[in-house]
Each structure stands twice: as C-alpha cells, then as structure tokens.
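pls read this stuff:
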Amino acid sequence: MKVLVTCPPMLGLIDEFRPRFSQAGVELHAPNVVQTLTEQELIGILPTQDGWIAGDDPASRKVLKAGAAGRLKAVVKWGIGTDNVDFAAAREFGLKVSNTPGMFGAEVADVAMAYLIGLARSLFVIERGVRAGGWPKPRGVSLQGKVLALVGLGDIGGNVATRARAAGMELVAFDPRVEPGPRGDGIEVRRWPDGLALADFLVLTCPLTSDTRHMIDQRALALVKPGLRFVNVARGQLVDEGALIRALEQGIVHSAALDVLEQEPLPANSPLRTFERCIFGSHNASNTLEGVRRASERAISQLFEHLAIE
C-alpha cells in the first residue's frame, strides 16, 4: 500500500506519524508542500497511490479521475472544510471519501478572538509602529456591550460565541441550520442578512458552499454601519475582495483581519496590502501541536479503515 500526504500542518509533524505507517506496512509519500499541490502535480502522483490524506489541494473531478484510473481507492480530507473536494466525482469513480470534522473549534476560535481584540485595540498597528521606532497610541474600542454578528454556529462558531460572551459582547448569529429566534445561551439567531446593520464586529466561521460564496459582497456591505470591524477565519471565497477593498477605502469597514483569502498566498500586488489597519494570516488558525496531532491521528485511522488496513 502507498499513501500520499499533502496537508502542510500534518507534514510539519510527519516524523511522528511515520512509525504508524511503517508498522502497517504502508509506504508513505510526504512531499514538501507550502499550501497545496497543483492539479497537474496531483495527476502525476495520485495514480501511483492507494490512499491520499489531502489538505486544501484541488480534489477536482480531473484529479480524482486520474487517481481512480490508477491505484487510488480512498481520500481523507484533513480538517473540516470540504469545498475543495468533488464528492460527486468521487462517488462516480468509486472512491471512498471522508473528512475530520470537530477537530479545531477551540483553536480557530482562539485565533478569531485574537484578531477581534487586535482590531478593537489596533494592537498590530501599535506593534508595527513600535518596531519602526515610533510610540503610537491609537484609541481603541471596548468589547463590552458591542454587537458581534457571527456567521456560522458550528463547532468553531459556538466556541467563538462562548469567548465573545465572556468578553461581554452581545451576539447576533446567522446559520440556516438553526431556527431563528432568541436562544437560552444569549444568542439571537436571525435569517441572513436581517440584523447585519446592528453589528460592530462581523466574524465568519461558516463553510463555503454555492450559497455562501461571496456572501460578503457590495450588497451585504451596503447594510453595515460605518466602522465595522471584520474577521474571516473560514474561507477566503466567502468574501468578494473587490467589494471589501471599496468598503475599506470608504471607511464603511474600519479594518479587517483575514486569516484566509480568495487567492493564497496573498498576491504581492493585492490592494489589501495598502491598508495599515488590516491584519493578514496564512490560513493557519487550526495549526497547534495538539490540534494537528488530533486531526492527523483521526485522518490516518479513517484512511486505514477505508483501505482495510489493520
């Protein structure tokens, strides 16, 4: 049996997992991957592999067809999001596919709150100023009593809500899977975008689907009150970056913290780079030692089960 691993966080700890593959008699292929492999690279590798633990790589119809024409039998998407996987194609080609949900709710929520506080108090602007030799003292805003609009009430969203309530924030949430109305935990659930205008802060923790792609667009941003602080720890394609750039230029959005982007890594010529108050991440919110170990062990177990490996 041969298995390909292309998920960067798992690859960062791959030596810890090599014994498990070796003991099962599995030949491990662990290339150096910064973010993802391309379709062409995957088409060249997957036909020789029995299983694949994927990151955010394009598990497209073309890629899965090439793999299935060779030895590929099963794919495990490491992590929560599955928007990069063509499940219909996987079924057509007889491939077993799964993911590892519920692994990083606390970890990603911690980063979301760090971004939220960073924007509220201009912490990153201050850090850059001190590093450059200055001593800036921008006036921030308190979290107490502010309204947080939270898009997505899954594992990550629920953990963000817990942390935001502890900070004294009021919560309005949007999730089509949850019945609208006030809840016992202090969250008022509404139908998107009703109530978006109430938000002082907006945090995205929802999955990327055909319905949520570019949900933060010109129409949505026209509803928010000026000075909104915006955090995205979900998927970059949830945001129309052109609309966000215009909202930043006009002051409708005060600042943004983007752990994920429409194009990753962020292009050198992206206009987003010109906004001093924006904070950028590297799609890294889930990457803690404990979280990576937990998700990787789950991914290996699932793949071995798919491949009937003892």
Notes: The first strand starts at residue 2 and ends at 5. The mean pLDDT is 97. The chain has eleven helices and 13 strands. The domain at 105-280 is CATH 3.40.50.720 (Rossmann fold).
